[in-house]
Structure formats: structure tokens, C-alpha cells
Design brief:
Structural class: alpha/beta
Shape: globular
Number of strands: 23
Length: about 375
Amino acid sequence: MYYRNARIFCGDFQFHLGAFEVKDGRFGKVLPEQVPADAIDLGGATVIPGLIDVHSHGNSGADFSDGDYEGLKTMAHYYARCGVTSFAPASMTLPYDVLEKAFATAVQLTEEHPENAAVLRGIQMEGPYFSYKKRGAQNPDYLKNPDFDGFQKLYDGCGGLISIVDVAPELPGAAEFAEKASKLCTVSVAHTDSDYEHAKAVFDAGATHLTHLYNAMPGINHRNPGVIPAAVENPGVRAEIICDGYHIHPAAVRLAFSMFGGERMILVSDSGRCAGLPEGSQFTLGGQTAWLRDGVGRLEDGTIACSAANLWGCLTNVLRWGIKEEDAVRAATWNPACAISAEQEVGSIAEGKVADFIVCNRDYTEKQVFLAGRALR
């Protein structure tokens, strides 16, 4: 099947007016010179790859860390309806046996491929190797120093499905952990009170990711620069950013894109089980009670615990906030695909890749989601 008269976000990270082919669930020719007479006319609509969320804990009352397979399926269906066609759910700071159970549900989802659901393409292991001071909503009872043997057991137990593992650079053995773990997956700096020197050491050792930029880390200080400048200076490091409108001011989002460039930014939702629930809902996060208050998940003391957003909302937010369209779309598609080593399959509209895409108006309204070439029902 061919689609024509479309404004397509192509593999060069630019929009081109033209046509593309979908065949057996994958993209065929993109911008062909000729198309069949029966090609579907999209009337100039914008076509972008399916979105990829590499940091989301849950939605619809479910949380990945519950270790409940039906809940994970519910999450995957919600993601798809929001235009998120691939995801890597994030765990919490919990005991290893609880994480093992949750990771087993991820394996099951990859094996069963439910219809009309986003595809799980990895796991972000957010914790337990974090700073107590910058733990945020992570449960302090389960914090640990970096433990490569324990991590590898979890990694092997889920067949290598862990695609991102987080660590605070100031903890004992963090650099050694980063060096070893980076041979297996992406290593990210997170929930840290690190100074510049410790952060640089971990990036030099192999960390290439920064989890939810600005949140749960020191701000930039001209005499004690900390984690963020250490990440900016290393061209191999990408930075996640939560753009729900609550975690970070739009000016700080614009600053982040200026510092890292569109090629290194990743939009994430960091949503909890409150996403998709009504205002005032009570829920749990990592064993702690939280509430959906004023549009964001909060702990009892008012600490922001998670977002109630989805990645489509984050994308439309940054477009309203003045981020260049090409950079915003790339940060929600190609860049996250690279972070979880899924770029050979998804993340761009290119021949041979899975035909996950979204057709929408120029202002990113009235979207239609396609999973492997089929319109979401």
C-alpha cells in the first residue's frame, strides 16, 4: 500500500512532501519517484514515526513495578492510543526479587505481542543505585551501592531486556560499575548529588545517558558545576527531559535543547499509574502513597513523584514552547530509539523498518496511529 501527498519526517530529520510505501508491516520505498494510481491521498497531512517512551512507570492505574502482566498489557494499550508505539518501562528502587518479577512480565509481553498495543523494546532499571539525598520519590529503604553482580543476574534473568540502568556517580564503585554495565546496555546518571569530577569519571567510564535532566540532581553552579555541565561536555551523552509542564519550566526546556542540541535530547513522560486517572486519585509509587494533585503525582509532603502525562502531550508541549519541530520530533522518536538500541527497527521512516507511524494535522491534532502498518482500532 502506498500513501501520497504527505508531509513526511524522513531519516534525514527533515520534512519532505511526498509518498511512502507500507508492505507486510514495514516501510517500503520512501519518497519514490512514482506511485500507483490507487495510492491513498493524505491531503498534505504530517506523518511522523511512532513515539518511543524510554521512561514511564505506568498509567491507567497500573505500574510496571507491580509485576502484574495484565497491568502491563493495560499500559501498552494506553501508550498506543497516545501515539507511543514502542516503550521501555521504568522500574523503581525495590528489592531484587520484586524487580525480577516485574522484569518477567516484560519478557512475557515481548513474547505474546498483544494486538493494538505498544511494543516493549527494553527496560529502564531506575534504581536502586541512588543517592539518599537526591532519592526523590524513590523508596530509601531499598537504596544500594552499585552492585554489578546483582545487576547482571537481573539482566541475564530477563534475557538482556534491560536497555538502560541508572547510577549515581558519587557512590562507591560507580565508575567501575559504569565501565562493566556499559558493555551490556546504556548506563545513565540519575538521582545524584554528584560533583563535576565524579560525574565526569562515570561518563568517561561509559555512561551515555542522563535521566530526567534537572530533576533529582544538583543545579548548575558556576563554581561547582556538577552533573549537567559534565554531561554537556561529553558529546556521547543524551539527556532525557520531562515536558509535562510541571517538572520543568519551559525556559529551562529551551535551555536544555540549546545546551545539548536536538540530536542529544530525549523527551520522556516519567508517568506513574496516575496517568489517565481523574484528578484527586490516590495511588502508590514504589511502596509509597501518592496523589494526583493539580495535574501531577505528588507524595504526601508535596514532593513531585511522577507525571500524569503521556509522551504525545509532552511533544505538543515543547512545540508550543518554541522548540524547533524537527528537533522535537527527533527527541520523541529517533533519539530514544538509539538510547535503547532499537534504531535498526524503529525510530524513523525508512525502508525496511517497522511501519509504526502517526498521521496528524500540521498542528499535531486529530492523529491516527498505525502499528506495523495497521491503523489502531
